[in-house]
């Protein structure tokens, strides 16, 4: 009896090992280390439509990256993302406290970039300090010398086309009074309350002359030609119904500080 008790456990173990020998659990699977097998088991499976030979399918050529975005086109011609506002323009055209008035910020994103203040290459025979107005392109240049000029966008009214030639900025005025001419009063009777007989319009944010005015003389006579600011920023770069040479208020303040006394001006 004791012998049987010893034999049966050993026989059971032998039978169990023999029955599991087909599973090779005791033999290492060396094929798992084969690179070929690894590639076969991990290679991606692609969808192959019936009747299509993948060997005869031509690859799609790389598409060029677009250089501009028509949806959000900016002066920087960005390729990706939303338009970025130039921080320099934000500083130049932000809210400005001047004398007793506060000029509101100008929405520069709604002004054509070429009409914003910028230093440009400008070859001219005019002396530094001269103001040149190109009525056709609607630009005003302040000649700096060394082939450079500060360029401003301007709007031109009917009177802005009425005179051309050479003159002198005889007089400059901060926050000027506006006195419409007799011709303007005859064309627009609604401005009669601001005529010379009534003392003109007081300075202010809604004054048509804006924050500054520069008065042009020739041979000692007033040409009635003016460079002035305007609260109507949307008129810059355009032809308007009245006025002379309009500038953004922040720009006319900048130009006023640059122009020397008795500066020469050329209008063409």
Automatic annotation (TrEMBL):
One GO molecular function term of this record is: peptidoglycan L,D-transpeptidase activity
In the UniProt record, does the keyword Transferase occur?
Answer: yes
Pathway assigned in UniProt: Cell wall biogenesis; peptidoglycan biosynthesis
**BP GO terms, sorted:** cell wall organization; peptidoglycan-protein cross-linking; regulation of cell shape
Q: Which domain of life is it from?
A: Bacteria
Report the family membership: Belongs to the YkuD family.
Q: Pinpoint the L,D-TPase catalytic domain residues.
A: 129-268
Glycoprotein as a keyword of this entry, yes or no, is: no
Q: Pfam families recorded for this chain?
A: YkuD (PF03734)
GO-annotated cellular components:
extracellular region
**InterPro entries assigned:** LD-transpeptidase (IPR050979), LD_TPept_cat_dom (IPR005490), Transpep_catalytic_dom (IPR038063)
Q: Which keywords does this Swiss-Prot/TrEMBL entry list?
A: Cell shape, Cell wall biogenesis/degradation, Glycosyltransferase, Hydrolase, Peptidoglycan synthesis, Transferase
Which SUPFAM superfamilies does this one have? L,D-transpeptidase catalytic domain-like
Coiled-coil ranges per the record?
Answer: none
Active site, UniProt feature: 228, 244
Query: What name has this protein been given in UniProt?
Result: L,D-transpeptidase
């Amino acid at each position: 009896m004791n012998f049987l008790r010893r034999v049966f456990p050993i026989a059971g173990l032998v039978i169990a090992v023999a029955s599991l020998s087909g599973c090779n659990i005791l033999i290492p699977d060396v094929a798992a280390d084969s690179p070929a097998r690894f590639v076969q088991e991990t290679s991606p499976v692609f969808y192959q439509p019936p009747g299509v030979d993948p060997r005869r399918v031509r690859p799609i050529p790389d598409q060029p990256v677009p250089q501009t975005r028509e949806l959000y086109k900016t002066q920087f011609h960005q390729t990706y993302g939303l338009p970025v506002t130039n921080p320099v323009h934000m500083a130049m055209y932000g809210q400005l406290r001047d004398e007793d008035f506060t000029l509101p910020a100008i929405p520069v994103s709604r002004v054509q970039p070429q009409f914003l203040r910028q230093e440009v290459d400008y070859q001219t025979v005019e002396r530094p300090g001269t103001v040149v107005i190109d009525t056709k392109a609607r630009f005003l240049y302040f000649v700096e010398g060394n082939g450079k000029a500060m360029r401003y966008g301007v709007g031109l009214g009917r009177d802005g086309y009425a005179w051309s030639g050479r003159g002198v900025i005889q007089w400059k005025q901060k926050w000027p009074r506006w006195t419409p001419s007799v011709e303007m009063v005859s064309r627009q009777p609604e401005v009669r309350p601001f005529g010379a007989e009534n003392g003109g319009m007081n300075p202010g944010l809604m004054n048509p002359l804006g924050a500054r005015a520069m008065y042009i003389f020739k041979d000692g006579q007033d040409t009635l030609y003016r460079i002035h600011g305007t609260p109507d920023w949307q008129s810059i770069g355009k032809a308007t119904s009245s006025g002379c040479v309009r500038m953004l208020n922040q720009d006319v303040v900048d130009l006023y500080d640059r122009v020397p006394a008795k500066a020469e001006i050329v209008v063409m």
